Amino acid sequence: MNKPILRKCLLVDEWVIIAPERGARPRQLELVEQSTEDSFCPFCPENEAVTPPPIQQWASPSFPDAPWGVRAIPNKFPALQIEEFPSPDSDSLYQTSGGIGAHEVIIESPEHHLGWEEFSPKHRGQVLLAWQDRMRDLRKDKRLRAAVVFKNHGAPAGATLSHVHSQLIALPFVPARLDKKVRGAKHFHQTHGRCALCAMIEREVESGERIVVHNDHAVALAPFGSRLPFEIWILPRNHQADFASASHAVLQSVADLASQILPLWHQALGSTNHNLVLHSIPFDFAGEPYYHWHLEMLPRIGQVAGFEWGSDFYINATASEVAARYLRHLAN
User: E-assigned strands of the chain?
Assistant: First the structure.
């Protein structure tokens, strides 16, 4: 079995992806935490021949002499493939389906060693515009129902190459965590007549207790129910369900706040492996009023262990207001 396939758990309404090709991924970061100057990087300019042809490229004024500023390519070791078809299996007990989907890599800079906090403000905004362009394009495929954009930084967070990049996976169903968020948002809206995250922003801006940094269009806060120590959510101030509809100004503001959080984490926690995950409403519900898109920033400190795996329930040793207060102190 070489093609990806979807399998549904018999006991809970959750799908998993079986993707044998993922086992062939490069393991650069597992071998050496810091790449050396002579390490070969397939994401650097002039090495484009070793990656699949680009889906889309964007110029950037920050890199006027580079052949591209941001580059989207198919993942060479995809979890799902756009060429596949749903083709559900007829097995009466175990439910499977063809591994239809899309798995793309967004190479965020031609410069190998730059990170988000080192990008120019305009280039940070360009990266989120690239995410937006790819999401808008993929939603045209009616077989796909949702997309998740994510960044893995550091081997413990899942990165296998150090060159700054993010990934996008589009799925033929709504993944379990996003589905739970959408259902929760819908229930809150039906009960209270307003968006849950708009209510959160209003409360936190009023109290200031869990706000870390903010600007005209977005806020970065430690959510009241943080799963992880120093977890941060970045939310647009004005209500919007669909990331693909966000204005350039909002994208720029969110990217700027993320770039401020990264060095604060570094001061507070040292060199921090982390994940960034974008949560936007599923494609079919883009016009619904109850959801509010946001960017989750998840530092990989501590360890997800047996209790968390066994219960899907997290133990967090640092209350969100304590983490926010400390990060605010470092910011000032």
Answer: 5-8, 15-18, 56-58, 70-74, 96-98, 102-107, 146-153, 165-171, 211-214, 218-221, 232-236, 274-279, 294-299
